[in-house]
Write a structure and sequence with these properties.
mainly alpha; two-stranded antiparallel ribbon; 9% strand
């Protein structure tokens, strides 16, 4: 086991086992078989804004969660309101 690397960070050989597990040919071929990336990206173009469809979906989900956080009451709010009215 080697000592600290440059700037006191862990040497790259310390984390080699994780990198080897993540880059094995079997895993990459399975992922490559599931997702075909050999095509042009699907984008949403609106004037000067160009976003991928995946980013538009993520932004939409974040807006839905934000709206729900504003509309839905906090858990236990009714109980605290009843205790406060006594």
């Amino acid at each position: 086991m080697s000592g600290p690397g440059k700037y006191g960070c862990a040497a790259p050989s310390v984390n080699r086992s994780l990198g080897a597990a993540m880059s094995s040919p079997a895993i990459t071929s399975v992922i490559g078989a599931l997702v075909n990336l050999n095509h042009p990206a699907h984008t949403v173009d609106w004037h000067f804004i160009h976003l991928s469809v995946a980013n538009v979906v993520v932004i939409g989900l974040m807006l839905v969660v934000f709206a729900l956080a504003i509309v839905l009451p906090f858990p236990g709010a009714a109980k605290r309101e009843r205790e406060r009215s006594r």
